[in-house]
Amino acid sequence: MNKPKGYQICNRCVMDTSDPDIEFDENGICSHCHKYDIISQNLPYSLSSHEKKERLKELLKKIQNNGRGKQYDCVIGLSGGVDSSYLAYLTKREFGLRPLAVHLDNGWNSELAIQNIEHICKKLDIDLQTYVIDWEEFRDIQLAFLYASTPDSEIPTDHAIFTMWRQIPEQIGVMYFLCGSNTATESTSVKAWSQGHSNWNYIKTIHQKFGHKKIKTFPHFTKRDLFKWTKIKGIQVINILDYVDYDKQEAKKILIDELGWTDYGGKHYESLYTKFYQAYILPQKFGYDKRRMHLTSLIHSHQISRDEALQELQKPLYNEQELKEDMQYVLNKLGITEDDFQKIMELPKKTIQDYQEEVENGSDLYSDRIYYLFGNIYNRVISMIFRIIR
User: Fold this and answer.
1) I need a labelling partner for 174 at 20 to 30 A (CA). Which of 70, 232, 277, 383 fits?
2) Predicted local distance difference test score (pLDDT) of residue 376
3) Strand 236-239 with 74-77, pairing
């Protein structure tokens, strides 16, 4: 496959050359489509409906056995979006588990998101634990990323969420975290559009370079933490929606009819900042429209047609009044003026690679190598034990 010289859009999906790393074959089919063809063969997504049900039964039995005698048998993430909300519905109503729902409040929840979360937990009788991030710390980190001028301003939130995925199960003594991530609607990702989600050194470097406050409480993890959680504690993060035939529109209908859930009109729009960032900053400054990868995932899983996706892309991301209101709200909350924001939008575009040397200099390379070595040794020892047992 070759990279195109001019503008090109895939003949199978709606990914185009706004992804600087995209490649096309001789038939005009893009590298994302070829990647999906490989991903779709991975377990459990590639299994038949019957096989998925059988695998799911085995998995649920393990979760329930691990949770015996405990208040909860698993932890689930709940943002109020369709994926996590449907996960909550399945976990309690269909699977019969006893989940603890956890939610990260980074200060940007819409009123609708708060309402949806309350309805879900009340109607499903699920306990909710909300982790409220220190707003002044988080605001300083978000501003630092805006001034760093990379398309990665959402990764601090993702990193904090990833921390909770294993930190909360460890705290309550269970092994399983069930998350709403899934292949059916999220198989397509673009590295250039956002990267560094699990890299605490990257977040720390950007904040040290452009931030002003001392970070004391922001939830984060290192390779040492990851080693402890996965290899020693045995905590597993499971994309359980891959064990069902997940259809997004059908899931929305169930949530609306049975839980009183209300749609936001866009993926991850339960967060006011995410909405503004994805619908304005990314397309205006970087030329990235994340709808392309979300729609492409739905094309690949046969939930919409390419023509339907193209029609969706013709719709404006914002109407004029809504944009004005959202922009004013975001700027006021961040504590910056319109002039400040305009200067941010005009800063030269950069990527994580522009800060790579500083990120590496700020990392504990010795510690990283030690835990990489221990991880390899651990995996080999476990493999040997299993071979002996068999």
Assistant:
1) 383
2) 53
3) unpaired
Q: What is the DSSP track for 242-254?
A: GGS---HHHHHHH
Q: List, in sequence order, the alpha helices (H) in 3-127.
A: 31-39, 49-66, 82-89, 111-124
The DSSP letter of residue 280 is: I
Q: What is the pLDDT of residue 265?
A: 81
The token duo for 186 is: 């999220």
- Integer Cα distance of 136 and 141 in angstroms: 9
At 366, the pLDDT band (50, 70, 90 cuts) reads very low
CA 92, 98, 104 angle in degrees (round to 5)? 85
Please write the tens of the pLDDT for every residue from 287-320.
999 999 999 999 999 999 999 999 999 999 999 9
Element (H, E) at 295: helix 291-300
What is the chain's Cα-based Rg? Answer: 22
Q: Residue 105, SS3?
A: strand
Is the pLDDT assigned to residue 67 strictly greater than 90? Answer: yes
The Cα 159–Cα 163 span in angstroms is 6
Q: Among residues 256, 299, 301, 275, which one has the least CA distance to residue 86?
A: 256
Tell me: pLDDT of 375 over 90. Answer: no
Q: At what angle do helices 155-172 and 200-210 cross, to 10 degrees?
A: 130
User: Backbone dihedral region of 93: left (phi > 0), alpha (psi from -120 to 50 degrees) or beta?
Assistant: alpha
Q: Are 303 and 77 in contact (CB under 8 A)?
A: no
Contact 223, 366 (CB under 8 A): no
Residue 107, pLDDT score: 96
Residues 6+ apart with CB under 8 A from 146: 153, 344
16 DSSP 8-state letter = B
In the sheet that holds 74-77, the strands lie side by side as: 127-132, 99-105, 74-77, 176-179, 236-239
CA-to-CA distance for 202 and 49, rounded, in angstroms?
Answer: 41
Three-class SS string for 124-173? HCCEEEEEECCHHHHHHHHHHHHHHCCCCCCHHHHHHHHHHHHHHHHHHC
CA distance 232 to 117: 33
Q: What pLDDT does residue 4 have?
A: 67
* Coil vs helix vs strand at 1: coil
